Amino acid sequence: MGKVTAISARQRIDWDALSDAVERVEITTAEYSAAMTKLETCYKRARRRAKRNCAALLGESHTGKTFVIENFVAKHPPTRDENGLTCPVLWVEIPPKPEKAGFLALLLKALGDQHAHRRARIGELEERLIRFIRGCGVILIILEEFQHVADHPYEEVVDYITNYLKTLIQNERISIVISGLPHANATLLGNEQLRGRFSRPIYMRRLDWRSSSARRTYRAVLGLWQKGLEPFELPDLESEEMSFRFYLASGGLMGYVAKILRQAVQTAAESRRTIVTLKDLAHAYDEEVHEHDVLFGNPFTIALDAKDIQVDRLKEIGTKRPTTRRGHAKNGRVTGRRENPF
Questions:
Q1: Which residues does 338 contact at the CB level (< 8 Å), separation at least 6?
Q2: Where do the DSSP E strands lie in the chain?
Q3: For the range 97-102, what are the long-range contacts, defined as Cβ-Cβ under 8 Å and sequence gap of 24 or more?
């Protein structure tokens, strides 16, 4: 399943290429396949300008949403010729607290508008964006981190963005895919006309060690990583012990698995070796996993028979949020939304 092939001892090893080996391994699960199928369906229907052709890809951080989007966009990349840019799929990441003009400028910049951030009235930006969308042949727009719209403190901005998306869908027959944390769906539910244009969300969920089927899937995925990362020699990732250590490290979030393996492989490659040790994995964990997600110490150094390991607590990994000056984090959202005083 992996795309990295083994290198014989007689070949000259390209250590720089090997250090990026994790990026070239393709890991698929049932949820990944379902999400890819959904996006491909949206794309095919978008080419026909079909109605009600929008989707939402939701899930906790590190569940693989961006991995799905990256692979989908890679299949439908932008091209450039003597006539200019053709971009059937426009993919942007929404920043925290987007503003009206900033949201339009974000899309314009992604389409190559050199004057995207030049000060202009909202109406002018909207007109220019429509010209670029038509000129570049955009038929599908992917908006990642859509929870930043849902979390916006001003309802006026949320209403503008959702209403503008509705206009693009209705007038330009553009298909929209949003991606983000689960509560991003509340923004769709709150706009009746926009809600009616979206199908049921696709959820990317963490794998739960307490489920025997999820546990088998988790170990199988680790086995795919092992094969895909050849010629690196790692501990038996699919074994009961190592798979449980990785679960303690990731809480079932495959994004954390990728981060740990990426760091461990890079450390080995930088040392000009293909053997990845338990010590490398322990170091990678310390480097890559946020301190808020460390529940029982370093999973690659602790004894697995420790009585204080509570598997049901691992679902907390990836969900903790530090408090902010403007409010307290709650379910991934900061409380205290207020109306725009202007």
A1: 153, 154
A2: 55-59, 79-81, 84-86, 89-93, 140-144, 175-180, 202-204, 329-330, 333-334
A3: 97/148, 97/151, 97/152, 97/153, 98/148, 98/149, 98/152, 98/157, 98/161, 99/157, 100/157, 100/160, 100/161, 101/125
- CA dihedral of 131, 137, 139, 143, whole degrees rounded to 10: -70
pLDDT at 230: 86
Secondary structure (H, E, C), 128-182 = HHHHHHHHCCCCEEEEECCHHHHCCCCHHHHHHHHHHHHHHHHHHCCEEEEEECH
Per-residue pLDDT tens digits for 78-110 = 999 888 899 999 999 999 999 999 999 999 999
pTM: 0.79
Cα 272 to Cα 249: distance, rounded to the nearest angstrom = 26
Dump pLDDT digits (tens) for 121-166. 999 999 999 999 999 999 999 999 999 999 998 999 999 999 999 9
d(CA 149, CA 311): 34
Cis-peptide, bond into residue 231, ω within 30° of zero? yes
The stretch 262-285 carries a mean pLDDT of 92
Helix (H) or strand (E) holding 41: helix 30-47
Output the furthest CA–CA distance in the chain (Å, rounded).
70
* Predicted pLDDT at 334: 33
